[in-house]
Amino acid sequence: MWDIRQLFDYWRSRPDDKDLSDTEIQTKLASLLLSICFIRINEAAEINLAISNIDYRNQTAILCLSPKANNSIEQYEIRRTGDPKVYPNLTLFTWLNRLYWHYGMDPEQIASLFWQSDGQPADKRRISLWLNSLLREIGIRGATAYSFKHAASTELARQGLDTTKLNIFTHHSVFSRAASNYYIYAANAGINDIASQLVGSHGQSYATQTISQQRGRTIERSNISTLPGCYSQHS
């Protein structure tokens, strides 16, 4: 199993999110959603922004998947770390702001988070191709896009995270059936601390400053430009 720290070090060496190309920032976002938020590739392709809870002022987001046949809705809170270069929340809002300001796509009105250059939503195959290319770029051979979560879980286990917290963090069933709802709540309260532990970061103050700067560019709903032809709205 490859070392997930190679992924985090790679993104630390790359330009800031705002300077990445569309494909690069989406690849980064997908890799962080898989490795830090433990979202599956097929779930990443099913994220529905129109029904997600996105708070631009406070820079928080709970991403929801399109409803299943039984009308249940799965949701994931996007985690924070202490490292502004490996920070899923910051990368997410940088991409959402680009969708709005550059392409005129209102995240509250579109169903997909990931997009191809032809204006079509990116499916799990496209996202997998991006991630496989990323692994080759980093120099990791013999691994696929489906290995990100396993690599991250392996690192947390290596760091000594106890089994119950590891299962909660990775969205697996709690190890002990006797675990109470209170314990699960208490463990969830430390989720962002675990995310910071995973990436090995110590830059919380800088990350907080970056969030404050981004809040100055919250989306104004009354000033949406016309969608470019190749980025027509999909629902």
Task: Describe the 3D structure.
- There is one protein chain.
- With 235 residues, the protein is mostly helical.
- It has a single domain (5-216), classed as hpI Integrase, Chain A.
- It has helices at residues 5-13, 22-35, 41-45, 88-101, 124-138, 148-158, 163-169, 181-188, 191-199, 204-215; strands at residues 53-55, 60-64, 75-77.
- It has a three-stranded antiparallel beta sheet, with no helix packed on it.
- The N and C termini lie far apart (38 Å).
- 34% of the residues are buried.
- Residues 175-187, 202-216 and 218-235 have low confidence and may be disordered.
- This is Tyr recombinase domain-containing protein.
- It holds the Pfam family Phage_integrase.
- Residues 1-199 form the Tyr recombinase domain.
Uncertain stretches of 5 or more adjacent residues? 175-187, 202-216, 218-235
| SSE series | HHHEEEHHHHHHH
In percent, how much strand structure appears in the residues?
A: under 5%
Give the spatial strand order of the biggest sheet: 1-2-3
Separation of termini?
Answer: 38 Å
GO molecular function: DNA binding
Protein name: Tyr recombinase domain-containing protein
Domain Tyr recombinase: 1-199
GO biological process, one term: DNA integration
Short key terms for the protein model shown above:
44% helix; Integrase_catalytic; 235 residues; three-stranded antiparallel beta sheet; 10 helices; Tyr recombinase domain-containing protein; hpI Integrase, Chain A; mainly alpha
Q: What is the fold's blueprint, element by element?
A:
Elements (H helix, E strand, L loop, with lengths): L4 H9 L8 H14 L5 H5 L7 E3 L4 E5 L10 E3 L10 H14 L22 H15 L9 H11 L4 H7 L11 H8 L2 H9 L4 H12 L20
